[in-house]
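Structure (tokenized):
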């Protein structure tokens, strides 16, 4: 085969470094963006933070307003609940000593138990056993580890027997919260009942129910339990109320997780009868070019000048990318608000179906861009702060040919279940029938799926004794 030269024309899409940077910045959360900008300021001498009067700041961070935002009147009024939800307002007030106040450290269950252990007289061996038990307690307050495992954990310090471990565990069970370090629910409830006054109404029957009929209680088998124990309904109700006053998860009142605070990326308020969207200040970082270093380019040696020119180009790319990010976020937020005005007015039951394609077509962008913007970005509304993605959901057909949002249907299901009679909970089929009566074509399987997504038990599990 003879070698020959051939000419071919082809088209391909190449992502320039500037476009790659713009895409990467678009998908960053607000916190990640702040970290990114701090790194850029440290590494690039041509970048500088500017005040509000600098012309570069407008180019860098001030998004071109959408149609609705352009008509927003000037006002000094801050967004609703700004002081509570905007991260830039948290931790900036000074206390009497001139220091920034710090959030109190969250005390978890183990810290609380160890604090009580330190106040309890015990021998060194028993104290070591108690500490090992406390470390083995799970977040619900139960002890799942066996005596053998605790023996192994203490083998380098003491030689202990299962009887000694059980003796110390019974002492720990009477720490606050009562019932902690129990092996199972029956034992946990029994410990709490033991701590009540002997004359408490229904105490004896409650002990019997917990000891022998806990599974029947879970099945809500009221009639059979009364028949077996030969008790009247009012006696049973008294004992049942006593059991319900106990804590099945003694550790639930403590949390080992640090609370997370969400800083909104955009705010929506109703001004002059119209919903207006504005970006949070942190989403419009004001960056500019450091004029001092820029003026050195012409005077610097060739290598230094080349370096400064490269840094200047990167600074301009970053400023332009930040401007694009702010513009895009404002457009997407405004489009979401325009589509979900009914939600802002009337709540989740009025949520409209909305998919990424709808917003993409309205603002003239690709769906992948909308997906990046809606990830880990939050909108503050008078009804709370929600991730952009919250406002997107598929639609279910209605009898009039329209569509109802899946989010709205979930809100309806939650409301119907909240209003049901405790003794006659609504089954999935009854919920579907009621929704159909309201004009929403939804099957029982769909209702079950939405109910499970809301973490609502089935009708059988929701049924109440009596």
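Design, position by position:
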């Amino acid at each position: 085969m003879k070698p020959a030269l051939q000419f071919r024309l082809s088209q391909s899409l190449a992502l320039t470094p500037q476009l790659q940077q713009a895409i990467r910045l678009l998908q960053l959360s607000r916190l990640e963006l702040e970290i990114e900008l701090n790194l850029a300021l440290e590494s690039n001498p041509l970048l500088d933070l500017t005040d509000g009067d600098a012309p570069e700041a407008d180019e860098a961070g001030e998004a071109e307003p959408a149609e609705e935002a352009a008509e927003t009147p000037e006002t000094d009024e801050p967004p609703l609940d700004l002081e509570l939800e905007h991260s830039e307002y948290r931790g900036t007030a000074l206390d009497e000593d001139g220091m920034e106040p710090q959030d109190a450290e969250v005390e978890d269950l183990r810290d609380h138990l160890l604090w009580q252990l330190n106040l309890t007289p015990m021998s060194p061996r028993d104290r070591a056993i108690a500490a090992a038990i406390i470390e083995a307690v799970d977040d619900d307050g139960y002890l799942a580890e066996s005596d053998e495992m605790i023996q192994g954990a203490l083998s380098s310090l003491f030689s202990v027997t299962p009887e000694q471990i059980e003796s110390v565990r019974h002492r720990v069970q009477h720490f606050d919260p009562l019932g902690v370090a129990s092996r199972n629910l029956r034992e946990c409830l029994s410990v709490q009942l033991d701590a009540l006054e002997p004359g408490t109404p229904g105490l004896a029957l409650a002990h019997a129910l917990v000891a022998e009929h806990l599974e029947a209680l879970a099945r809500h088998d009221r009639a059979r339990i009364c028949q077996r124990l030969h008790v009247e309904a009012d006696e049973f109700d008294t004992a049942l109320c006593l059991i319900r006053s106990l804590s099945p998860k003694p550790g639930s009142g403590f949390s080992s997780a640090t609370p997370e605070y969400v800083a909104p990326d955009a705010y929506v308020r109703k001004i002059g009868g119209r919903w207006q969207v504005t970006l949070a200040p942190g989403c419009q970082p004001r960056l500019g070019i450091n004029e001092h270093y820029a003026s050195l380019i012409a005077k610097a040696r060739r290598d230094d000048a080349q370096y400064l020119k490269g840094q200047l180009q990167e600074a301009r790319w970053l400023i332009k990318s930040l401007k694009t990010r702010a513009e895009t976020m404002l457009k997407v937020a405004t489009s979401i608000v325009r589509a979900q005005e009914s939600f802002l007015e009337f709540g989740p039951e009025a949520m409209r179906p909305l998919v990424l394609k709808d917003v993409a077509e309205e603002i003239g962008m690709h769906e992948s861009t909308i997906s990046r913007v809606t990830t880990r970005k939050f909108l503050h509304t008078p009804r709370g702060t929600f991730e952009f993605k919250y406002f997107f959901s598929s639609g279910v057909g209605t009898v009039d040919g329209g569509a109802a949002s899946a989010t709205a249907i979930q809100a309806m299901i939650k409301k119907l279940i909240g209003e049901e009679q405790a003794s006659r909970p609504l089954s999935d089929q009854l919920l579907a029938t009621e929704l159909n009566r309201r004009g929403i074509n939804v099957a029982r399987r769909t209702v079950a799926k939405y109910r499970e997504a809301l973490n609502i038990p089935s009708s059988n599990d929701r049924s109440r004794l009596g």
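Reviewer-requested clarification: The chain has 23 helices and eight strands. The mean pLDDT is 81.
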